[in-house]
Amino acid sequence: MTPSNMSTEASHFEAAINLQLLSKASGLESAAELDDEDEEEKEKATPVRRLRPRTVVKYDVNFVPEDEDGEDYESFGSSESDEGFGDEEDEPERGEGDDDEGVLTEGDAEQMDEAFIALLKIGNTRLTKAELKERQAALRATAWTTTSSQFDVGGSAYTGMDDEMAQPVPELRALADSPLQTLLYFMPKSLWVLINDQSNLYAGQQVGRRAQVLHERQRGRRVETVTQIQRRLKLKNPYETHEILHVIGLLRNTRDNDEAAFDHKTGAAAVVRNLKIVLQSNERHPWHAVVVDRFYSSVLLAIELLGMGIYVIGTIMTNRLGYDANVKEDRASRPASIPRGTFKFSRSVAVPSMVAFQWWDRKPVHYLCTGPMMTESSIGRKVKQVGAITVPCPNAVTDYQRWMGGVDVHDQLRLQRYSLQTSTKFKYYKSLFLGLVDMALVNAYLSHKEAAKMAETQPMKRGEWFTLLQNQLLQLKPQDFAGVVATPTIGSQKRTRAPARHTHAPEQSEDWVVVSGVQKRRQRSCKVCALLRTSKAKSFATTYYCERCSVDDAKCWLCNKIRREYKGAAKTCFEIWHDDFDAGESIPPSLGKRVVLRRPGKKAGVRKKTRRELQLRAEDADDESESDSEGGIDE
């Protein structure tokens, strides 16, 4: 299911499929709107802020990879105060809209004024202070047409987008009858193998810390040393991939979750980074549309995305730079003299496809859209003591209602029933991972329903589908993942690997011997010295070793003094082993040697005589024999 294929006749489920990767935000009010609350609202108790659940995206939008510069995203701010927080009353009430919609046609979007775009420095991510001030001045001076309250007649909205029906791809439809195969389509076996490998790596890295914690918690007569605990932990068998999926199958949510998860670590830069990855342009679908709400929206972001071939439909905070002041409404609630459904809008002079408008619902709602036509439409509302009514509105309002409502349905499916993320409490990164699994599960089930609909068969109920998936997960065996290669991590070749010595530390041996009446630590041959030994470079002995690189009692001995140069830099053997040899995993084949870790003997053996000592002993023996022979002659 691709997010770019948005249907003109999509139901809530279809909208959920299309928009589950799109950004969402809280409906926060600006400070100016809060100051204009009427007296009736002031007398009421402060309402509890209700925030919609947020999706967890695949890409961590708050993490800038090492091959990117964080400054590249610092210029997307609105440069206005965004600290006005309130309840979500300014958001339009969700309801059923009209199913009729303008037919989308292929074509080019309306052109933008080149001089205005040049002033905004669109596409330039690194700006000086002077250029930022120039951009802000251009936004403040944004020209808009005279406001109008008349619907447009004719025309097509979102030029360049096609009207192709969103549906599962053929290879996904072929798997839709099996919950496990459908889940593995979204989260393939290679991904689970990678997760298993990284889990085992992390477990090995935490052995020292866990051993220390277990040692401190010990009570009673028998107390293990930290080293003994480390050895015991290292003897545990590593995790296997199918075991992780068994745990996923055994997780369950014991209650419905009514609490809304909210993540504040998002913004305009997150939108740009996400959409560059998710909605990559292609010849078949050159244009896309995203639905956002007021926390994200800004004039600059709308123009930036329009240049990327992405339309924006969303609400906006009225204090954003460049927003038309003539369409702003200062009154907090609709007066009785203004009919519900009244609106006014204007178009940008420099960017004709960008529309700013205000529409009266129970309260004023402000929108900023690119690519819409302000044709007439209607939306359903329920009024107390009256019942259901039909309220006129521009077509952009129904677009927002239908597509944003699809995101809410997707989140309801993800967070309120059968949710792994809310099933138990874990560390934050595990909760994020389970949130991604929840998204894959919802997408898999929606794909099953859509495939059944296309095949004109009866789909499984959601509970039945999850029950079958659980049985399939618990039946997985090691051979199901035999020969599967782990998925390469994104940007693994671009990122610099963290040196292994950050988690490895040299430790000094506690093996003591008495030499000539003096107690000393026993020294053993350094592994790196043995590898780099030549006729001109001798090998050294050391009392230091790396516990992480050792195997039980077989220690990995490494010099902790700078004794040689490697690749033009003076380093200790410990640094060479971990930084250059990757803890023994990347020993250059040119050395033609291998490292063997040997266990120490129970008792110290007799030291062998050196060649010089043997030579001196032989000379002494010769002298003694000569003296004996001379004494015999004298007699």
UniProtKB/TrEMBL annotation:
Composition-biased stretches (Basic residues): 598-611
Domain PiggyBac transposable element-derived protein: 263-445
Region (Disordered): 28-104, 598-635
Organism superkingdom: Eukaryota
Extent of Acidic residues compositional bias: 32-41, 65-104, 620-635
Entries under Pfam families matching the protein: DDE_Tnp_1_7 (PF13843)
PANTHER family per record: PIGGYBAC TRANSPOSABLE ELEMENT-DERIVED PROTEIN 4
The protein's name: Unnamed protein product
